[in-house]
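Re-run requested by the PI after the first attempt was lost when the workstation crashed. Everything re-entered from the original request form. Ligand of interest: nicotinamide-adenine-dinucleotide.
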Amino acid sequence: MRTVPYFISDKRVEGAGDLLVYNPATGEVTAHVPIADKALVDGVVAVAREAAVGWRESSLSQRTNVLFSLRQLLVERGDELAALITQEHGKTIADAKGELARGLENVEYACGLMEHLKGDFSSQVASGVDVHSVREPVGVVAAITPFNFPIMVPLWMVANALASGNAVILKPSERDPSVSVRLGELLREAGLPTGVFSVLHGNADTVTHLLEHPGIDAISFVGSTPVARHVYQTGTLAGKRVQALGGAKNHMVVLPDADLEIAADAAINAGFGSAGERCMAISVVVAVGEVADPLIAKITDRLDKLHVGPGDDVTSDFGPVITKEHRDRIVHYVTSAPADGIAVVRDGTSWATKPGFFVGPCLLDGVKPGMKAYDDEIFGPVLGVARVDSYADAVAMVNANPYGNGVAIFTRDGNAARLFSREVSVGMIGVNVPIPVPVASYSFGGWKSSLFGHSHIYGPEGFAFYTRAKVITTRWPQPSDSQIDLGFPRTR
Ligand code: NAD
């Protein structure tokens, strides 16, 4: 059985395999993953600290060249990387390529680092006094990532952290860790110096060693809300800057004037794509007024045409979920829904009896706050419909929810959309766009229990997070200050 290696310094390093990696489409174990203990974390942090000294002194053009080369390699190896993601995560090849494309955007943004790291300058703030600012790397960044986007989320962090002149230690999800090791190899091939990027595998204990290690300066975390909260609290207690992005429950509000064909297509794509295992997935359609019945009919028509199957089958619209335990948890939300008064319009739970970790598409009508199927992040191919009477009720429902990652509104009324954008307590809003993930030149982040810390991830806030500001105030004697002979004629 293969053991997924660490990537330390500049090469693969074997460890003893402790955790299991599955092919979710078959349910078979495909590899073991080691758990980095405290001694190994100490050793890798020492490597990163030493490498960070040289990397912070690298020229901006050297860093740009590495990132340009990385971009090229990621494009050239796209098929190989997508296949690796599909094998361990289960998503379709098209979804794997899609996440790579969104990750690539961040590498392209980071290629503009000369612009992003430019400081400010103010001349003559007082007589003979100028002020300028620079941004310097924080040092060593630990990047801790979830299973659901095994290449995109690492690239959200790694591209901008390296561009800013930091060394990075990536701790990917133990469930689909192999593509992170390939990322390490591609970074070396792109010319990144030894030790600037390493990959450590492990579990909660490994993360705790990183959070408490005095040699780590900043933590970027993406994962579930309970772990994000713990990471934020532990990391900041240890004196580090921390951005910790958590879970979500994203609503899609459909107003009576919306184009229901477009809204139904959006609900299908955003609710069931990647088997619903996206932090920006739509999990609740909020149908306002008389829209509910016709919208449910259109969603059901489309849902019946979805093809569930292995991710490497091009006819599959979505693949399996990540583990058997997660599959069983999702099934329980659906089988227990009727006891809460929810109507199960489509029940895909019979898929759970097949080999692999499949759940077919499920549609629940009548979800409400206080019901488990509404309150919890299910993170599977289960779409709930909530019926409300008015626009105001829809906004109240969105704002009362403890999560605030993404939200969408479907309408033809520009002013309703504008008002909605201003009234909701959510970080990312889509107007007739169901998954409003910002492009790489904006930053990504939710509100409330979807983000701990004040910094959103990637884009301008990414560069701000991975750097520290210095402001330098300079005074030189001026001709008017003294009788100094400058040795050349004064112009004024
Ligand atoms: P997770 O929280 O279980 O794991 C995330 C990372 O934390 C992994 O590397 C894991 O090894 C580590 N970890 C797990 N338990 C830990 C603990 N007790 N202490 C310290 N570290 C621990 O998340 P997941 O199941 O891999 O990913 C799915 C979750 O991530 C969902 O909740 C989803 O919404 C969220 N997510 C959020 C975003 C976002 O941008 N807000 C993006 C992607 C995923």
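Saved to the shared folder this time. The domain at 2-246+450-472 is CATH 3.40.605.10 (Aldehyde Dehydrogenase; Chain A, domain 1).
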